[in-house]
Amino acid sequence: MKKIFFSTIILASVLYAGGGKEMVLGKTKDFAERDMVELIQEFIEKNKAQIEQKAFKTREQARENVKNYQPKGLIPLKPALEDKIFYPDLTYTLDQDIKNANGDILYPKGFKFNPADYVKLSYAMVVINGNNKKEVEWFKKSGFSNQVSYRLLLSEGSYYDLNQELKQEVFYLNPQIREKFKIEKTPSIIKQIDNKIQIHEICIPCMENNKTKIVDNNLSIKEI
Question: For residues 202, 207, 212 and 215, what is the CA-based torsion angle, rounded to 10 degrees?
């Protein structure tokens, strides 16, 4: 039976070939598959409320993530209980030879140098604990707030909240600066004097009893 049906189709195709006629086997229907773009648009229209709600939640979560950002490696620092000035040793020792384009050794492994002999800090840094209200208030009155020559670094606390409160840029004290400059107490003022880095720890409890003198960027004496 199948052979007879197949033979009939072959015969019909031969008879009608080149005759300008169409061979129709059974009923015809329009191509039913819908355009993919149309399907997507329909899905969006049907689920518009859910999609907008999900997009809103995603934006809010992203905003919260930015507001609550804190880098890894933050270590809580103790408040200074005495005024102290010191100069950390910045000596760096090369762990490999430094060569020129020809392979000649310019500086051998083990060579020691002070980076402050070659690099000048363009601003001083003030380190405070952003969770310590007394330190925040001290910073507001210190004369360092909103000064281009000073940058505020937090040992902990919310950079976003302080940014809103102080109306200035706020950064975090990264481990590299903390370790290199031996920052252990807050508040601390980091500044370069000639080829040395000076660290000045400020004792706020001391200031509550007596005025404390600090050295400003021009080495003049300032009372707070």
Answer: 30
Q: What's the token pair of residue 119?
A: 């690099």
For the stretch 99-142, pLDDT in tens is 999 999 999 999 999 999 999 999 999 999 999 999 999 999 99
Q: Is the peptide bond before 108 cis (omega within 30 degrees of 0)?
A: no
Domain ranges of the chain: 78-223
In this prediction the pTM is 0.67
Q: DSSP letter at 43?
A: H
CATH T-level fold of 78-223 = Glutaredoxin (3.40.30)
The answer to whether 175 and 147 are in contact (CB under 8 A) is: no
Contact (Cβ atoms closer than 8 angstroms) between residue 205 and residue 186:
no
Dist CA 180 CA 141 (whole Å): 28
What contacts 141, CB < 8 A, 6 or more positions away?
Answer: 224
